[in-house]
Specification:
By secondary structure, this protein is mostly helical. The chain is built from nine helices and no strands. Its main location: membrane.
Length: 210
């Protein structure tokens, strides 16, 4: 799977980054079926990765500024599972989070795509478009991170990312909505269960210490 420029203008175009970023962000949010359905099924990873990292870094900077200004104590939570995994690699310090965002974001996106591709093979079957296509969905749905920093509103709006992820998996792999939903929601539910167990354990430990 190579990393290179896309031969198509359907996705993010590094040769025209500013205009392409705005156009792609708009189409992902407003026309997800058409956008993901029209993405080239090539092995290009660089363009979608750069798009995703711009979203992650912008979110980290704006969220970090809110923390430094005392508006919020922690960066906002993005319930989109495509964003949840990258978030786990971010430090809790606002400044460190900003500096670490590109590295943590890249690692998280690759991990998220790998997990979802495994589920694609299990749920959709071997007749799928491969890791690169799943990686594109994981990358382009990072657009929801752009509103992740907005207190209260951000997490609510970011729930739309679940829909975008399901549409992306469905369109790019040519599967059903039900199977795509399983691919997207299984990691989310696993993370949710682990978080609940962890919180329960912390609460139990603190109560015993008291």
């Amino acid at each position: 799977m190579g990393i290179g420029r896309s031969a198509s203008g359907e996705g993010f175009d590094l040769s025209n980054p500013a205009n392409s970023f705005v156009d792609v962000a708009r189409r992902v949010v407003l026309q997800p079926v058409r956008f993901f359905g029209g993405l080239p099924r090539d092995q290009n990873l660089l363009n979608p990765l750069v798009f995703a990292l711009v979203c992650v870094v912008v979110s980290a900077i704006l969220s970090g500024l809110l923390v430094l200004l005392g508006v919020q104590q922690n960066p906002g939570f993005n319930p989109n599972p495509q964003n949840a995994i990258p978030s786990t690699f971010a430090p809790t310090s606002a400044l460190a989070s900003i500096l670490f965002a590109p590295i943590g974001g890249a690692i998280g996106i690759f991990v998220a795509a790998a997990v979802q591709q495994l589920l694609v093979r299990l749920v959709v079957g071997e007749n799928n478009q491969g890791f690169a296509s799943t990686f594109k969905v994981a990358s382009y749905t990072q657009v929801t991170a752009l509103v992740n920093w907005v207190p209260v509103i951000g997490p609510l709006v970011a729930l739309y990312g679940l829909y975008l992820s399901i549409v992306g998996i469905r369109e790019i792999h040519g599967t059903t909505t039900g199977k795509a939903a399983l691919v997207v929601l299984i990691p989310f539910l696993v993370v949710l269960v682990v978080a609940v167990i962890a919180l329960a354990w912390v609460g139990y430990t603190l109560s015993n210490q008291g």
